[in-house]
Amino acid sequence: MGAPTFLTNPPKVALIGGGFIGPVHAEALRRIGVPVVGILEIDPETGRRTAQRLGIPKVYASLDELLADSEVGSVHIASPNPAHYEQARRSLEAGKHVLCEKPLAVTSRETAELAALAARRAQQAAGVNYNIRFYPLCHEMRARVQQGDIGRILSVSGSYTQDWLLQVTDYNWRVEPDGATNLRAVADVGTHWMDLAQFVTGLKIERVMADLATFHPERRKPVGGSETFTGSAAAERPTEPVKIVTEDYGAILMRLSGDVRGVYHVTQCHAGRKNRLYLEVCGTEGSLVWDSQEPNTLWIGRRGRSSELFERDPGLMAPAAAAISHYPGGHAEGFPDAFKQLALAFYGWIGQGCTGTPPFPTFEDGHHEVQLCEAIAQSAKEQRWASVG
Ligand code: SOE
Description:
This protein is an alpha/beta fold and 389 residues long. Helix content is 32%, strand content 25%. The protein has helices at 22-31, 44-54, 63-67, 84-93, 108-120, 136-147, 185-201, 231-234, 319-322, 335-351, 363-382; strands at 12-16, 36-40, 58-60, 72-77, 97-100, 126-128, 153-162, 205-213, 218-222, 239-243, 249-256, 260-267, 275-283, 287-291, 297-301, 308-311, 386-387. The protein has a nine-stranded mixed sheet. The chain has a six-stranded parallel sheet with strand order 3-2-1-4-5-6, with helices on both faces. α4 packs parallel to α5 (108-120). The mean pLDDT is 96. The structure holds alpha-L-sorbopyranose (SOE). Alpha-L-sorbopyranose binds next to α7.
C-alpha cells in the first residue's frame, strides 16, 4: 500500500487571494481532504464573490480577522508579491503553518527574516509554492542525476517562455514595479526555472551575468484592472497608458557549484509559447530533457546508443518519483496534479509532526531565489558578473 492520498485531521486552511492561482490551491487542497474554511481578498465584496464561486464558507475583512480565527491552522498566500512579506510573517507569528506563492517576498532582507523566523518555529511548516518540482518526471530527473545515470554534470540550460504579455494591451499587476528589484519575468517565472534546475541537479547557482529587456516601455492598462492570462478579454475595455520598467525578457548566464556552466532565458513575449518551462541537464554519460508542455515525457540523450523517450509510468520510475505519481502510465498528469502533490508533501509532513527534512520547497529555498533575483538585477544594471547572496 502506498502513502495516503487523503489526509485525516489536517489543519484547516485560510486562503489569501482568489486571482489566477488561489483557486488552484483550493482545488488541490480539496483533492487531499484539507478543508478551506475562509478567504481574504482585496476587499470584502470581491471576497464574497470568490467565496461563492469556490464554495468557501467564510470571508475575512482583514488579515487581523483571518489570524484571529482559531479554526485556521494554515494560511495559503496567493496575493500579489509585495504583500507576501507581512502576510507570511504575521501568519507565522500567529502560530499558523504557511504555504506562500513565489517569490517569497521582494527583498532578501525580508526573505532572510522570514527564513530565520521559520527556523525558530520548527513546529510550523513554512513552504514556497515552487510546484514544478512536483511533476513526477522532475523528481525522476533528480533521482537519475543522484544515481549517476548521466555521469558528471557539465552544463544546464533552458528557458521559461510565455506569450500572455506579448501585446501592449496585455496588462496585469505583475507588470508593475515591486519597489525593490522591479524584476518581473525573472521573478515570476525565472525563479521557477532556477528552483527546478537546482532541485534536479542538487547544485546551487552561485554567480550570474544577466541581460534584461523591456520590449514595451509603455503598456495600456485596462481601466478597472485585469486578471492573469486574460490579455485579449481585457483588450476590449477602455485603457490608460502606463510606463513600464519591469522586464519582458531576461537572458542569464550562470556558474553553479562545482563550476558547472548554465544558461537560460525567460520571456513573456514569445508568441505561441503559452507557459513552457524547458530544462536540459547534460552530463558526461547522457542528458535529460523535460518540457512542461509535454510533462509526461522525458527525453534521455545518449551518445553511444539510441536516445530514448521515457514515458511517465510509476511502475518504471524511481521510488521518489513513483510516490508522487498517482495515475498509471498513459493517464496524463499535469499542472493541477503537481499542486496536489506539493500540498500532500506539505500536509503529510505536518501530519508526521514536522520532523526530518521538509519534502517541499522551504522559506530557505525561497530566500535563495530572491537573492538570485537581486544578483540578476545587479548584474544587468552593472553589466558584469554578480555573486549570489
Ligand atoms: C504568470 O506568469 C504565472 O501565473 C506564474 O505566476 C505562475 O507561477 C506560472 O505557473 C504560470 O504563469
